[in-house]
Amino acid sequence: MMTFFKEFKDRDLAVHFIEKIKTVSRKKIRLMEVCGTHTVSIFKSGIRSVLPDTISLISGPGCPVCVTSQEEIDAFISLSRLDNVILTTFGDLIRVPGTESSLQEEKAKGVDVRMVYSTSDALLIAKKNPDKHVVFPGVGFETTAPTVAAAILSAARLKVSNFYVYSAHKLVPPALTALMALSSGNIDGFILPGHVSVMIGTDGYRPFFDTFKLPCAITGFEPVDILRAVLAVVTQIEYGKPSLFNAYERAVRIEGNPKAMSLMARVFEKKDALWRGIGKIPESGLAIREEFSAFDAANRFQIILPEKKDHNGCACGEILIGNKTPPECPLFRKACTPLHPFGPCMVSTEGTCSAYYRYHKEPGN
Hints:
CATH architecture of the largest domain: 3-Layer(aba) Sandwich
Radius of gyration: 21 Å
Largest sheet: 5 strands, parallel
Number of helices: 18
CATH class of the largest domain: Alpha Beta
Order of helices and strands: HHEHEHHEHHEHEHEHEHHEHEHEEHHHH
Shape: globular
CATH topology of the largest domain: Rossmann fold
Number of strands: 11
Strand order of the largest sheet: 2-1-7-8-9
Distance between the termini: 19 Å
């Protein structure tokens, strides 16, 4: 318990929320934290250890690298192999295994794969290498899509004609709707992601909530934030009064960030998208608009995909929708480790398998 409390900036408030949760919680419930950053915070702080046995926290598809489909990973690898291409990417994506290889393996073979920290870094590389095609895989949710849109607009304004984006962006609210169908009623409430909510606001979830009337709470990433959200959702369930509660008022507004959303809509349009573990979700992805097709890697290059194969028993897909936990995967801690990952749930720092591996103590260990 003392180790847990060291994670809190406000010990008294944490104690208050924990005691209130224990007092209110009576029903057996399953709450899904959608965001991978929430998953890491829950494990790191030990929140599960102070919650009553009535509450089960399950991790959802909130890790952008983890939900990127196998086809998209294979497309990135195919693009990296093309002549005169520099493929720029965020770090987690480099190690995700594709059907036949990974960007890390391609880099070891001499392919020009470079890690960047922002889309503007990729644009700068394009400006410095006018004789090369610089491709950036656009992976992420509503949080990162506006920054990619800004880079495309900058490339258009500056006439940087050798900069391209392969859009694999995903939208969170449609995934919540898909999860309701896949879970067969096994999710009793959602803890909604803070970063995405800063962008889309509480109104971004309104159509989903009005349809399903499932208890929800938006929250930040401090453990005390998460405890407040758990209390809010548990209270809604126990009293039969579902609501869309904002427990992150210091950062999330009703309307979100209209400027960022306008920027995203200027460059992208909605499309159906494949999610690892979920499948195709209508209008859950972002495609580059025709106006900016000159910067669309999918439009500019011929992408050759390998024949699709099963991933040797990796349960990442089932884990992403809450149907399994990492210890239920036969590869976890055995063949699949952070040094030798079989799937993106172990590769990404926000992946559920990675969090379990680092922080979860199994019986006997």
